[in-house]
Amino acid sequence: MHHPWPDELLRVPHRRDVPFAKLTTLGVGGTCQWLFEPTDEKEAATFLRACHKEGLPYRVLGMGSNLVILGDVAIPVLRLRFPAELKRHGNLISAPASFGHIRLSQQAAEMGLSGMEYAAGIPGSVGGALRMNAGAYGAELIDVLDTFRFLTPEGELIEKKPTPGEFKYRWSFFAEVQAVATAMTVKLAEGDRDTIKAQVAVNMEKRGTSQPLSKRNAGCIFKNPTGASAGRLIDQAGLKGLRVGDAEVSPEHGNFLVNLGKASASDFAELMDTVRAKVKEVHGVDLEPEVEIWRNASPVAGSL
Ligand code: EPU
After folding, report:
1. Residues 201-218: tens digit of each pLDDT
2. Which of 210, 232, 248 represents a domain boundary (last residue)?
3. How far is the CA of 162 from the centre of ligand 1 (A)?
4. With contact defined as beta carbons under 8 Å apart, do 84 and 70 qualify?
5. Which of 55, 135, 142, 265 is most buried (most C-beta within 10 Å)?
6. What value does the mean pLDDT take over residues 242-253?
């Protein structure tokens, strides 16, 4: 069969034509034409080396919880699928990047280890959390991060302790380089198991009361402008309940644009554009997306 990619790349486990509806929490999008799912760091390194050698562009997908897909993606997509196992040494827990962030906070609580409670209610993978230094309620990942591992774009594996400047408020150096986080170790404190579990439950519940978490969503769609709340601005512009096809401005929280079932990429794009235009008209404010957006992506000409 004719295929566009080098043999080295095709040695990495992969699937063809996977609908993004299955790969993102929002469930909007087109098709992921080439989904590469390495099961360990070695296979992930093979993927990166092959792309680097050929100069191929690629994208990295985590749990797809902060992502809006607006079309098909024809370039290789990398999604780590490492065994979902935690390793514990005393107060240290190591987790693969593909492990669930919320699940890690629940497992740490079960072990009677404190420090990951903030993560309860922040969806996504450990890799995604590392990439954006996820946080809430005055705590963030960097507070507990002991060491982390990543692959460089050339496929070299590096393990290191965080150094000043690498992690800031909802930002890490991963935003600037194409490196792929593969694992992290957090240093927690021993505590009372029931107290930690209760805090995890409280944090989980806080989100659920104001946000439409029972609908397919990608979290908050727009960033809060300085000194304002995007949700409130959208609400005050009278946009709650506005629909384009199955894409809806949630009646519960204005900054949640949800998929009621079969919203298409164009429905969703149109709803986002309408919300931005209306908020600009009513409040004079330009809303910027908070989610990552992937539009149609084809391999660059000449790379095939
Ligand atoms: N509000 C309204 N109408 C609405 C929504 C909100 O009047 O439709 C008002 C609320 O009553 C409140 C204010 O706006 O007075 C702020 O709303 P909220 O407390 O829900 O917080 P937010 O600023 O909308 C932020 C984060 C959320 C995070 C919550 C809770 C951003 C853009 N949003 O939301 O993050 O879950 O605080 O910590 O930073 C996300 O990152 O995906 C996300 C949802």
Report:
1. 999 999 888 999 999 999
2. 210
3. 30
4. no
5. 265
6. 98
In the chain, DSSP assigns E strands to: 14-19, 31-36, 59-60, 67-73, 77-78, 87-89, 92-96, 113-114, 135-136, 139-140, 145-151, 157-160, 167-168, 171-172, 180-187, 189-190, 243-244, 247-249, 257-259, 292-297
CATH of residue 167's domain is 3.30.465.10
Q: What pLDDT, on the 0 to 100 scale, is given for residue 215?
A: 97
- The residue out of 81, 99, 131 marking a domain boundary is 81
Region 38-48 average pLDDT? 98
pLDDT of residue 297: 61
pLDDT of residue 167: 97
Distance 227 CA to ligand 1 centre (A): 12
Instruction: State how far the Cα of 237 lies from the Cα of 284, in Å rounded to an integer.
Output: 11
Ligand 1 binding residues, C-beta < 6 A:
136, 207, 210, 219-220, 223-224, 229-232, 235, 253-255, 290
Residue 300 lies in a domain: no
Q: Looking at the structure, do residues 77 and 103 belong to the same domain, yes or no?
A: no
- Residue whose CA is at the smallest distance from ligand 1 atom 38: 136
Distance 88 CA to ligand 1 centre (A): 35
**Substitution site in 26, 229, 249 for ligand 1 pocket (most atoms within 8 Å of beta carbon):** 229
